[in-house]
Amino acid sequence: MLKVLPFETSHTDVEHELLERVLPEHARVLDAGCGRTTRLCGYGSRIDELVGVDMDVPAGRENRSLDRFEPCDLCAPLPFPDSSFDLVYANFVVEHLAEPERAFSEWRRVLAPGGALVLLTSNRSNPAIRLAQAVPQRMRVAVKHGLAGVAERDVFPAVYRANTVGRLDRMLARAGFRRVDVHGVATLHRYAGGHETLAAVLRAGERILPAGCRSTIVAAYRAAAAARAA
Ligand SMILES: C[S@@+](CC[C@H](N)C(=O)[O-])C[C@H]1O[C@@H](n2cnc3c(N)ncnc32)[C@H](O)[C@@H]1O
Questions:
Q1: Which class in CATH covers the domain with range 11-223?
Q2: Which one of 25, 111, 130, 169 counts the least CB within 10 Å of its CB?
Q3: What is the pTM of this model?
Q4: Confidence band for 136, pLDDT divided at 50, 70 and 90
């Protein structure tokens, strides 16, 4: 169950709060599905090495915040030894994974015991996200581009295989993670395209939903002491 929390509308504020709790000094960090940019560049003083992986090779090579980029599919074995990282970070990546459980097992394997996972992802329990799943990809591209300013090349097909709080908890527990904190954050107002009234309506709509149905899940988990068998 989600804790009763204030109505949260900024995924970046919640992310910051979680990173403050779980990101150690001198951290070795894996940005899983790094794309072209990473907000982790704001934590440089605590990160000794920031490694990015992505199957979109041009995007990863363009990412100037990384110390190193490795092209790879997150649903296949990662090219790192066990216990290579103190933090795995995945910003709007889980919803795209065809085999999230394989990815989660690999994230657990490459994390040192006690290392942390911070992820942000869309919540399929939200009615608007469920509706978006039924919408053809070209329409999703038009909405994300027109209203949220996302470049067309950065709108990836989403499959939402792990995208409810319950599914995430269960899949991550099976992969050897224990929950630290999970927040349901209302973020649909980002799609209001600068229209204040529409933004207010979207915020009001999310406010009446239970936290577990808000549009974005922002969560932190810790690697359990021993990895479970995949
Ligand atoms: C919405 S973008 C987010 C990019 C970046 N994390 C950010 O915050 O801007 C999703 C990213 O996940 C990557 N991705 C999706 N499925 C993947 C997979 N199976 N293996 C590796 N990367 C994947 C995409 O190539 C893309 O760069």
A1: alpha beta
A2: 25
A3: 0.92
A4: confident
CA dist 228 and 171 (Å) reads: 12
Nearest CA to ligand 1 atom 13: 33
Q: How many CB atoms lie within 10 A of CB 60?
A: 22
Residue with tokens 């290392």: 115
The ranges assigned to domains in the chain are 11-223
Residue 66 CB–ligand 1 contact under 6 Å: no
What does the DSSP assignment read for 64-90?
A: TT-SEEEE--TTS--SS-TT-EEEEEE
Ligand 1 center to 208 CA (angstroms): 31
Model pLDDT for residues 155-205, shown as the tens digit of each residue: 788 999 999 999 999 999 999 999 999 999 999 998 888 889 999 999 999
Q: Which two tokens stand for residue 57?
A: 């090779």
* CA proximity to 96, closest of 15, 161, 184, 168: 161
Q: What is the pLDDT of residues 204-227, one digit of tens each?
A: 999 999 999 999 999 999 998 765
Closest CA to ligand 1's atom 4: 35
Q: Is the pLDDT of residue 18 over 90?
A: yes
Q: Say if ligand 1 is within 6 A of residue 56 CB.
A: yes
52 CB near ligand 1 (under 6 Å):
no
Size of the chain in residues: 230
